[in-house]
Every structure is written in structure tokens, then in C-alpha cells.
Amino acid sequence: MVKGEDAIRKKKNKANRKKMQKETSNVSARVAAIIATKKRRLSGKRRMCQGMCYSLPTPEDPFNDKHGKMDSRPKETKKPVPSKADGRVSINRDNVPPRKGDPGCNHAKKEHQEQKKIKAVNLENEQTISRTIDNVGQKTSIKPGKAKIQLIGKNGAVSAQQGQTFENSGCPSKFLILCLNSIQNVLRHDGTFSGEEDKPLFVDAWGVEFWRCYSIGKDILETSGACSTMEQIAWMASTAADTIARKEKEGLSFTSPFLLYLVPSQEKATKVRSVCKPLKALGIHTVSLHPGASLDHQIHGLKSCEPEFLVSTPERLLELVSLKAIDISGVSLLVIDGLETLFKGGHLDIIKSIRKAISANPQTLVFNDCLNYASVPVVQNLLQGSISRLSLNDSITSQSACIIQSVQVCALEDEKLSKGIQILDQVCGNELGSDLFKVLFVVGKESNFHELVTAVTSKGYSISANSIWSNSEVQKNSKTGPAVFVINMEHISTADLGEFEVVIIADFVLSIDYYIEILTRMARCTVNGKLHSFLTREDAHLAGPLIEILEQCGQAVPEHLRNLCHSFSMLEH
Entry's InterPro entries (predicted)? Predict the structure, then answer.
């Protein structure tokens, strides 16, 4: 009788067991069982009950540490199909939902739970950043999004990039915060960080406000101080690095430096480069140009690298541009630090030449305290169009930067309205003010109010005599022609004065506080603001405080105003 296959296999297994029992001194029982199981698996023949007794080792779990809780069925690679709910859904082998208790179902549940944990961590991080920014004093709306991490730069430098678009994000991206933390850690290690030890850079009030102004896309006028601090430099560099990462993710490339940072001295250039240097590990290279190094050495260095950030003094940069050693035509962000110092050093013409060498329309940031009235035309030349004002200083000088104040002394009360109408004609007829159609008249007497409305209407101007109006109404009227808005002095505190470049105070204020309120709230979106005021001898008691404000803002004081103040002081004595 011929022996069956089972009998043959049984005899062979018995021989194998005897053989392994002889080798028990070499390996443990557990390892011996694994070896035997491997041999059975390679032979291609198994017992029917084998899967029910225990699971086999796999490449994912060679030592069977998970005790059979993995999916033992072979997996099929399928393309993900988008879903309305999660954007990704897995399809099993028979296109039928897995049943409860199926090993594939358990594995899918584990993957789903892991995805939920990842989403919860991302949402928690974004909400933490949002709460931190809100604590600075601003309101932020959060739109959760998935974050992607990519490898950029040389030598495998890691940088995190935000998956959602920059315009729709309600808070700074994770990559921006990564840049800030990198800068802060290096500066603290070197002992050059001057901020609070327990306060991270990404909660800096100035930095958050700068990020919001930068996100709008307008030019920025910073009036907190004459030059930037280390914290401000860190925020500007990190924001620029974040923009570069987003643009490269979209497939864009830069042939010119993205950031051009003009500084007044070699010491300032060294300071800026020391702050930007930690970003080199994230793929952002910074080059500093100043007269302290030889021109040939800098030309040779520029040929061997393509920097993303360029920090330079104006005169050395203009030399290199004239020699075609560096191309700055595609600069996207221009920072002019210490404009007052550059103006006093006679670098105004050099800055104009550098600006002409930039063929693109870069977003410009100017640091200037505007204490010197002579520097106002320079700022007006650099910042043309709508701007964003950035200042955490509530002083009159900071809030009224680049607003020209004009004070005239009238002999009679009737001269105020006539001179106000003349100024209105000059503003609307001026070529530079051809688009300057938002003019505000401030009156204090009811009789003057009706007289002014009649006079302005007779000139052909459209007039709005409402005490309170919206920004949309201001913009709508300004598009149809020269619109004049008239307001009573009592409603100044409730009116929005930020849209008006020109304010004419026909009846001077009863208190100097009203004048300060108008001065610090008008012309928020331009550097061409003008405030015209008219005084008579009845307003002599306000001449002294008004002179102090003009001198504090670095503006010229009319001789008639000084005489009025002197005559009032003589009467008091």
C-alpha cells in the first residue's frame, strides 16, 4: 500500500523535530520554533489549523511582537479616491466595506485613529499660536489646515512649510515660527539676544503687527524709532524666508536677491547679518556688503553664491551694481533702515539710483522717526500710493509722521472760510493731488456750517454734511469727483478720519486736545497728509501749546503765530 502524502509529511516532521532537539544547546526554544516555522513557510505546505493556532513572522514583525494583531492578508495597492468628508478613502479588495472582526478592519481603524490624532495636534498648535497672538491685543480668525514638511536647501536642511495659502491663513505659518525660534536660540547661545529670556520672539507685539501689515501687501512706514532693533530684524528676515518657501513651493524661482536691506553703516550691516545667519541651515543665505571689505573680494564672493538676502550700505551697493557684479532688478522686499542717518550722510541720490535699478515693484519698508521735516519729501518719494503705518509708540511725533501742519493767523473771522476755500481749490487743482479727493472741513459754529456748505456747493464740489459716515461712502464720493466732507467739532471723536489726506480746520478748536486728536488720527494710509488751521486773536491762548506741537514734530513755526503767542503772554502779565 502506497503511503499517503500526510504520512510522508508526518514522518519528515518527526525527523526534523529530533534533529532540532539535538541542537537545543545552540539556540533557545523560541528561536528554534521560528526557524521551524520559516522552513515550513518556505516549503509552501501548511496545516489548515496553523493560522488559527498562531501567526507567522513577517518582514514588518520578524519576531512576532504584535502577537498576530496585524493583517495577515496580502495588501493590494490602490489609488486613493477623493472624498467630500476627508479628502481620502481606502478601498478594500472586493469594494465591500470590511466586516466587524476582520483583521483588515482593525488595521483600517488604527490608521483612522492615527490620522485623527495628527489632525488634533495640528489644530491644537494653530489654536495655541492664535491664542498667543490674541494675547498681544489683536483678533485673529483660525482656519485649520494641513501642514506639509519638505526638505529644501543643501545638505538636507529641513524646513516646514504651511500647506494653506498665505492670504487665507489667520496666523503666521509654522515655518515662520521655526525661523524665529532658530534665530532666538542662536542669539541666546551667543549672548547677543537683548529680549526677555522667557518670552519667545513669535509673541512680540511689533512682529505680529508687522506680519499683518506685510500680509496686506502695501508699503510700510515704521515710526517707532530711527532704526530697527534685533527683534524687528528677526521678524523681517523670518517673514521674508517664509515668503521664499511659499513661492518655491508654487514653482517660482528667484534670479535676484529677494530681500534688499539698506543700512547706514558697517556696524549695522554686521548686526543684521548676525541675525539672519541662523537661517542658513534652512536654505536662506545672507551676504553683507560694506566698505570694510575689499571690492575685489566681494565681487569674487558674489560670483560663487546666489544670496536670498542682501545687506549693504548704499554707496558700496551702487558700486557693485554699476560693475554688474550683482543684479537687484528682481528684488521683492526693500528695507531702508535709518533713513534719517542716510539723509544726513548725503546718500539720498544714491538711494534714488538704487531704487531705479529695481525694475520690479518691491514692497518697501522705511524706518524713520520723522523728527526732521526735511526728510519728509524723501519718504514721500519712496512710498508712493497707499501705505500701512506701523508704530507701537503713542507719541504725537510718531502718530503724526509725514503730516505737514500749516497754521495761519487771520485778522477777521470771515477770512477763515475764504482762505479755506482757496486751499481747497489748490488741493484739487494740484497735479500731485489729482487723486486727492478726500477733504474734510471741520467747523465749530452752526452759522459757519451752513455758510461753508453754500460756498463749497457753489464751487461745483460734491459735499457731504453728515456727522458720521462710512469708509465706503468716502471712497464712493471720491471716485465721482472732488468730494468735500463737513463735520462739526463735536463729532470728531466718533468720525473715522483715517481716509482723509487733507483736513481744514475752519474754526479752530476750543481745546488743544481736539487738535491732537485730529493730527494723530488723520491720513493713516498716505504720507501726503496736510492739516491746515486758521486762528484769530480770540484763539491766542492756544498759540503757545500749538507752537510746542510744531517744534516737537520738527516743523516750521510761522512768525505770525509767535507774535500772537507773545502778545497773549504780554496781556497775561
Answer: P-loop_NTPase
**What 3-state DSSP class applies to 523?**
coil
Grid coordinates belonging to 571: 496781556
For the entire predicted model, the pTM comes to 0.68
Q: Would you say domain 147-399 falls under CATH 3.40.50.2300?
A: no
Which positions ≥6 away from 522 have C-beta within 8 Å?
403, 440, 497, 498, 500, 501, 503, 529, 531
221, 379 contact by CB (below 8 A) = yes
Q: What is the DSSP track for 91-118?
A: --TTSSPPPTT-HHHHHHHHHHHHHHHH
Any residues with CB less than 8 A from the CB of 4 and at least 6 apart, and which? none
Q: What is the mean pLDDT of residues 206-221?
A: 94
Judged against a pLDDT cut of 60, whether residue 68 lies above it is answered with: no
Domains of the chain, residue spans: 147-399, 404-572
In the chain, % helix, strand, coil (3-state, to 5) comes to: 50, 15, 40
Percentage of the chain with pLDDT > 90? 34
Lowest mean pLDDT among 319-323, 472-476, 549-553: 472-476
H or E segment and range at residue 378: helix 376-382
**Per-residue confidence at 453, pLDDT binned at 50, 70, 90?**
confident
From 154, 282, 71, 441, select the one nearest 56 (Cα to Cα).
71
Planar angle of CA 366, 167, 332, nearest 5 degrees: 40
Highest mean pLDDT, choosing among 1-5, 117-121, 491-495: 491-495
The 3-state DSSP class for residue 543 equals: helix
Joined together, the cell numbers standing for residue 256 give: 535676484
CATH topology assigned to domain 404-572 = Rossmann fold (3.40.50)
The burial class, CB within 10 Å (0-12 / 13-18 / 19+), for 159 is buried
Order of strands, sheet of 309-312, starting from the edge strand that comes earlier in the sequence:
286-289, 309-312, 259-262, 333-336, 363-367, 219-222, 387-390
What is the pLDDT at residue 225? 81
Asked if 147-399 and 404-572 have one fold, the answer is: yes
Closest among 528, 518, 533, 437 to 476, alpha carbons compared: 437
d(CA 280, CA 303): 18
* Amino acid letter, 304: S
Closest CA to 308 of 344, 257, 381, 250: 257
Which residues lie below 8 Å from residue 364, measured CB to CB, with a gap of 6+? 219, 220, 334, 335, 336, 382, 383
Residues of 389-416 as b/e, b for ≥16 C-beta within 10 angstroms? bbbeeeeebbbbbbbbbebbbbeeeeeb
80-84, 147-151, 522-526, 547-551: the lowest-pLDDT one? 147-151
CA–CA separation, 9 and 409 (whole Å): 120
